Amino acid sequence: GDILSLGPNAGRILARWGLHDRLWAVCGHHPGLNLHNHLGELVRFQKSEQPMFGAYSYNGHRAEIHGILFEHALELGVNIRMGEEVAEYWEDDARGASGVTLMGGEELEADVVVAADGVRSFARKFVLNYQDRPKPSGYAVYRAWFDAAEQGVDKDPLTRHMVTDGDVFYGWIGQDVHMLTSSNLGGKTISWVITHKDDTGLLDTSSLPGKMEDVLKIVQGWDPRCAAILSKAPECVDWKLTVHDPLPTWISKSGRIILIGDAAHPFLPTSAQGASQAIEDGVTLAVLLQLAGKQNVPVALQAWEKIRYQRVRDSQVMGESTRDKWHQAKPEDKGEKLDMPRPAWLFAFDAEAHAYEVYDDIREEIEREGYSLPTLA
Ligand SMILES: Cc1cc2nc3c(=O)[nH]c(=O)nc-3n(C[C@H](O)[C@H](O)[C@H](O)COP(=O)(O)OP(=O)(O)OC[C@H]3O[C@@H](n4cnc5c(N)ncnc54)[C@H](O)[C@@H]3O)c2cc1C
């Protein structure tokens, strides 16, 4: 992967863990999005708000952000075993236990198993007996991240500003296409992503190398700055965007195995909320398990599903609506209506505080009325 954007809803949690300085040092700090129509006319400058709703966003390279989280987990004494593959999940209601069996045959038992095995989750089928049937969304993205100096970004008058002006963020929108590019670390690295129509019918199980001639075809007749920066990438990835129906539940039959993150609710990369929602999932779950205690794991998981189900869906839908707005914009459209949304319900949210606030009421409701599968508004 390449760029990872964490919204202030995740940023406030990471800052609370004391990670702000480390994240800030590896993240981009552009002043805002310069949005253009496909002919290169500036149609909107949307100022970057840092902090927003009292918290920072962090946009950086995925591996570096992962590295910081990984180090933090080790500092807390979390035992992380890399290179192990889960072959089976199991739960034993009578003993109040659950666990996994690794590929090598080793069994690990726990009070609760959290299956965070991503968009291609095998826990979905194994734990929930749910057959995911992803559908092509009709869109795909080409993405790249590269070193600016190595690729001569400073030598080309059409791209030089991306390294001489510090971190910058540019976008272009046209019929069924949008392209975003930013420079990071004071103009040292460049990332770009271009979302476009795709009728190959392929699914996101395939992340293919992209062909530069195909990428450049999309921006034929566009502002020449687009082809100039796209063509600097030494290579790019072609990622098909796939739609997944919401799962009916994220909890196993006995309530001791739970799916979180993309395993439970895959996000389109364009929503820029997949990782933030996965972090909210984890934080909420941690609070509920702490409040419920070891004896009440199933109730904690049920409360978690009730808290998360609608919120996750709302943030998934928001990502799709921004794409549609940009793809349907006319060249003469200008101004605030083209802004990326920054709704308070999404960004001002404090998942940790919310979980502490609502747990007792939800637990009482479950005890009173029994648990029923979540529904969407
Ligand atoms: C191209 C692309 C760009 C994106 N850009 C953004 C962005 O800018 N901002 C954003 O917020 N989100 C973005 N996303 C979405 C974001 O990456 C995901 O929402 C997020 O990574 C989900 O986290 P996760 O922990 O649930 O799953 P993942 O990050 O997918 O992690 C799942 C992990 O489980 C492991 N695993 C799988 N099966 C097993 C098994 N059987 N045993 C052991 N381990 C297993 C995998 O190896 C992997 O390490 C993007 C996604 C893509 C594909």
Task: For this entry, give a set of tags.
D-Amino Acid Oxidase, Chain A, domain 2, binds flavin-adenine dinucleotide, 3-stranded antiparallel sheet, alpha+beta, 15 strands, FAD/NAD(P)-binding domain, 377 residues, 8-stranded mixed sheet
Describe, in plain words, how this protein is organized in 3D.
This protein is an alpha+beta fold and 377 residues long. It folds into 2 domains: 3-57 and 135-243, D-Amino Acid Oxidase, Chain A, domain 2, CATH 3.30.9.30; 81-132 and 245-369, FAD/NAD(P)-binding domain, CATH 3.50.50.60. It contains 11 helices and 15 strands. The protein has helices spanning 8-16, 20-26, 62-75, 123-128, 161-164, 212-218, 224-230, 274-292, 297-327, 344-347, 351-369; strands at 3-6, 32-37, 42-47, 58-61, 86-92, 97-102, 107-110, 113-115, 135-147, 169-174, 177-184, 189-197, 207-209, 237-243, 257-259. The strands form 4 sheets. The chain has an 8-stranded mixed sheet, with helices on both faces. It is elongated, with a radius of gyration of 22 Å. The two termini are 33 Å apart. The relative contact order is 0.16. The mean pLDDT is 94. The structure holds flavin-adenine dinucleotide. Residues 1, 3-5, 85-86, 116-119, 122, 143, 239, 261-263, 267, 269, 272-276, 278 line the site of flavin-adenine dinucleotide.
